[in-house]
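Entry 14. Ran structure prediction on the chain below.
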Amino acid sequence: MNTLEKPKLDQILYSYQRLLHFVTQIFCTIGCSTEDAEIAAKNLLIADLRGVDSHGIARLEGYVRLWESGRINVKPQIAIIHETPSTGTVDADAALGLVSGEFAMNLAIEKAKQVGSGWIAVKNSNHFGIAGNYAMMAMAQDMIGLVMTNASPLVAPAGSVSRMLGTNPIAVAVPSGEESPFVADFATTTAANGKLEILQRKNLDAPIGWIQQSNGDATTNPHALKKGGALLPLGSDSDRSYHKGYCLGSWVDIFSGVLSGANFGPWVPPFVHFLPMPQNPVGEGIGHFFGAMRIDGFQDATVFKSRMDIWLRAFRSAEPIEGEHAVMVPGDPERAFEAERIQHGIPLLPSVVNSMQQLAQKFEVDL
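Output, structure tokens:
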């Protein structure tokens, strides 16, 4: 979990509304409808608000690059291609994942309203930002949200040097009563590639255990992926049980890619620019998986939320290690970031601001 940090001296503060307007303009300029542009901008910037700077506006240039290469359809016809009362498969028609993700989660929620739970697999999509954004949509309906996605093949299976999996995040959002809810959103790798990109912008080394060289040796070089290296599954090495991270990442890949009809494993189309498009694809686009479960399918929602309050208070009151801050539960640091950044602005590194300025000039959009 992230911890709240003060903006560094070289960072520049931008208001959320200012960035929202700018990103919406960029998506409109490349051809998105106003509605889709607004949805995409909102779903992209929630990452910056919640302190996940690796997946927010720093990725905007990457989405434009995918559009320029013909991989994003800005006028998609998103369609349900297979369906039962509680399940469905969606063909995103190469849409921005920021748009198809919201469509699919709303569909899962609607199915849950009708029959108790909804489960949606998505193929032919693109990067959708942070998974937790969509999981949280279920909470307003007294539902538990579960979301996952596969991603660029940058991760080596336990004991391998081959890049076979993505960072493949999992997100779970659980509503509560009086307490702030439980929201877990995490990569199944020791660190996401976006964290390496932040280190590259800051000219800093990576911690040992994040990444390996092309021959499997440990390295602190945040540029190692561009030299054939690989990210490591959660756990980092055999002594720290990285087979468990490998299992989690595989689970996400199967649910998101194999089940939906999307590409999976090393065939997933990469978001990063330094990987070529895989040959002989086994599916269409990248894949996501969304779930929504009605709490009252198990017990009265009010009773459950009061019980969640007890759980949350117990963990937040756990005795911390001497010298450490109070114990948090998943979602606490991100809420602190959101409250801080809504009020005071979102800090951006100069390299990110420079990228925005280049996009503004390229598309003649006011920054």
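DSSP finds ten helices and twelve strands in the chain. Will compare against last week's run tomorrow.
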